[in-house]
Amino acid sequence: MHLRRLELQGFKTFAQKTVLEFVPMTAQRRGMTGIVGPNGSGKSNVADAIRWVMGEQSLKLLRSKKSEDVIFSGTEKRSRSGFAEVTMTLVNDDETSELDLQEVVITRRLYRDGQSEYEVNKKASRLTDVALLLAQCGIGQRTYSVIGQGMVDAVLSASPSERKEFFDEAAGLRVFQLKRTQAINKLDATHENVKQADVLLREIEPRLVSLERQVKRLREREGIEEELRRVERLYFGRVWSDLKQRLEVAMGQHASAEAIFAQKNQEALELERELAGMEQAKPVSSDVNDIRAVLDVLREERVSLREQQIRLDARKQVAAVRAEKPWSPLPLSKIIEEIDAMGKAHDELMTLLDAEKLDVEQIRSVAKRLVGKNADLLGRLQRPAPEPEAPKSATDPAVDAEVQKLSDAMDAIAEKIRTTESRLQELNRKEESSRSHLFETQRRLTSLRHDAQSAERRLSETSVEVARIETRRESFYADLRNQAPALETELDVIVVEALKDSSGDPIEKVQGRMQRLRSQLEWIGGIDPATVKEYEETHERFTKLSTQVTDLRQAIGSLETVIAELDQTIKERGDIAFKKLNEAFGFYFKKLFGGGEARLIQLEAEPVLDEEGNVLEEVDENAGPAGIEMQATPPGKRLKSIALLSGGERALTSIALIGAIMATNPSPFVVLDEVDAALDESNSKKFADILDSLAEKTQFVVITHNRATMGTAHVLYGVTMAEDGSSQILSVKLDA
Ligand code: ATP
Question: Does ligand 1 come within 6 angstroms of the Cβ of 706?
């Protein structure tokens, strides 16, 4: 890493744009650039420019009173500048460098209105970025990269703690200390954030607990409401299903009762009509009487015929008996017996003739027997008179013809009687049948009327039942609208659901459960739904904050680890660097003084005490030594305190210290502003030798009036003051 280029514009005496190139001597030797010129020409302003562009904030070190004092203030012949700008170009040619940039270009700009800008490689940056970048480049921002007039002397006369700061930077601890400061600042900020978050968490927590309780009640309420909705569906579903079923049955029964009633009524009406028709029909009995009269005439005719026949038969038999048997007188008892027998036969015949149904054969046989007995008795009682010549034959043809005629007439009338009787029987049968049909119809009508009455009773019973269920349906609707109006449109659905319910709980149990859930809801009371939103927001905020606190605590842990590691690094490196620096200081002191002894002593930190000796502040174990004491004893002297050294001795001691720093912790470049001013010629030579020996590792820019020093430079820049009061640069290249 080396300084390649410096551009100044409007900075102090460099009013116009001025460029200084710093070319390394060889690849191995960084070389030395001398800046020479008369007093007041602006040489030290070059050193100030380098300090300023590296972020220097100390007005004292910049030899100013105000920030804008660095802007060219104008002369009689040249007007002032509006801004000051310095650009420094560094080239990274160190292969071991961790920086992955080939070139680092840093610009600082300041306007008269106080506006200040930093750029790194043309990108706007902050001062801290610049400081860190320079520390990474191994370039101390404040102290020994630009060593001004009397600056090292100031180190000699500084307090041990101020001196420690200078040495820490010289030991390359600056970068770690910067990181440590950053980490500590971050740690403090993180602690502060945790504190604030903790306060917020403590504020939120009671509200969150209260909200949580309310939300829990709300959830509980929601659960009960859900269960209530379920039980309501079941209850109303079941009641509605039952009512519907009962109504259907009742209406079915009513309809069938109505149908039966109508049918019975109709049947009764028809039967009444039929009966009326029967009653108006002509009675059969009038025909029967007519036929009976005919039959009576016929019977009388037949009796008369029979009598004729009997008489004829008697005549015939008498004739036959007379013809066949001899007469003999009969005893009287026999005659009486025969007459008695004839009387009986006669009675028998009369009985047969009076009978409803006439048995012609029997009548004939009884009549024959009577006629025979009559003839027989007559024949035996009468003394046969001398008879005319008896016909050879017993039969008389005229009688026979008459017999025959009578017999035929008898047969004809018997036939008529039979026909008439059968008609009579038929009519009787008819009458009997129509009578019994009438009775039967009357009986059926009575029964039908009875049935119609029963049907009417049943009809009114079913009407009452339907009305009763309809009333219950109305009160069901009223309950439903009152308790669960949303279910009114869902009745068909909840009925199906209720049918699927397998609990088998009686409806009273379901109703009881529904009432219990309602009183639970009443007991819980209403909760503002906005509570949930507030709870969620508060909970989210609380969780976020808790997570933040956890993250912050983790960050605190990591930062503490980083700080501990940095402390460790600073301590280890510091110890090693201090040891080396101490040895080198002794070495250069001896070299410059030709003997004697010089050393640095680390001072232990002590607790801060109040006037009474009470500890106000404990020692920070990690802070390292509190300061650095210097002891220098030139050869042949006993004194140890540097305060007692002569001006020249102090200058030599300063140079021994600069040499020691350069040797132990070589900076890429160092600007030395008239550090050799107080040296005599021989010491100037020694100083020049030391610089020459260090020039392998460090690029020097030396502002000097010293000829010996000028002699070691391979490039010289001459600075002159132009007529208009601005600095001009002249390049004097001494060797290639
Ligand atoms: P010496 O050899 O005496 O140390 P030098 O060459 O180092 O002198 P500087 O200290 O660099 O000179 O320059 C100082 C000069 O710069 C002073 O004359 C001062 O007035 C002038 N100067 C400082 N700031 C400004 C400014 N803002 N505008 C104009 N001139 C300024």
Answer: no
Residue indicated by tokens 């501990």: 564
| CATH superfamily of domain region 1-145+673-682+697-736 | P-loop containing nucleotide triphosphate hydrolases (3.40.50.300)
**C-beta of 10 in contact with ligand 1 (< 6 A):** no
Q: What is the pLDDT of residue 500?
A: 87
User: How far, in Å, CA of 6 to CA of 25, rounded?
Assistant: 17
The residue behind tokens 């007188």 is: 329
* Residue 370 and residue 349 in contact, taking contact as beta carbons nearer than 8 Å: yes
Q: What pLDDT sits at residue 372?
A: 82
The whole-number pLDDT of residue 649 equals: 87
- Please list the residue range(s) of the chain that carry CATH number 3.40.50.300: 1-145+673-682+697-736
Choose from 143-157, 272-286, 369-383, 439-453 the range with maximum mean pLDDT.
439-453
Give the model confidence (pLDDT) of 510-533 as tens digits. 999 999 999 998 888 877 878 888
pLDDT higher than 70, residue 386 = no
Using alpha carbons, list the distances in angstroms from residue 573 to 182, 300, 327, 569: 19, 181, 207, 6
C-alpha angle 691/671/63, rounded to 5°? Answer: 140
- Mean pLDDT across the stretch 484-494? 90
**Whole-angstrom distance, CA of residue 94 vs CA of residue 688:** 26
Question: Of 8, 9, 11, 12, which is best to mutate to test ligand 1, by the most ligand atoms within 8 angstroms of its C-beta?
Answer: 12
Residue 42: CB atoms within 10 A of its CB come to 26
Question: Tokens representing 397?
Answer: 């043809």
Pocket lining: 704 vs ligand 1, CB cutoff 6 Å? no
Instruction: Specify the amino acid at residue 681.
Output: E
Query: Any bridge partners for residue 719, and if so which?
Result: 729
Position 143 scores a pLDDT of 58
The arithmetic mean of pLDDT across residues 485-503, rounded, is: 88
From the list 638, 648, 642, the residue with the least C-alpha distance to 628 is: 642
Residue-by-residue DSSP string for 313-344:
HHHHHHHHHHHHS------HHHHHHHHHHHHH
Within a 10 A sphere around the Cβ of 298, how many other Cβ atoms? 20
Among 8, 9, 45, say which to mutate for ligand 1: greatest number of ligand atoms within 8 Å of CB: 45
SS (H, E, C) 501-517: CCCCCCHHHHHHHHHHH
> What pLDDT does residue 393 have?
52
Helix or strand holding residue 595 (H, E): none
Instruction: Record the tokens describing residue 236, joined without a space.
Output: 């109303």
Which residues fall within 8 angstroms of residue 512, CB to CB, at 6 or more apart? none
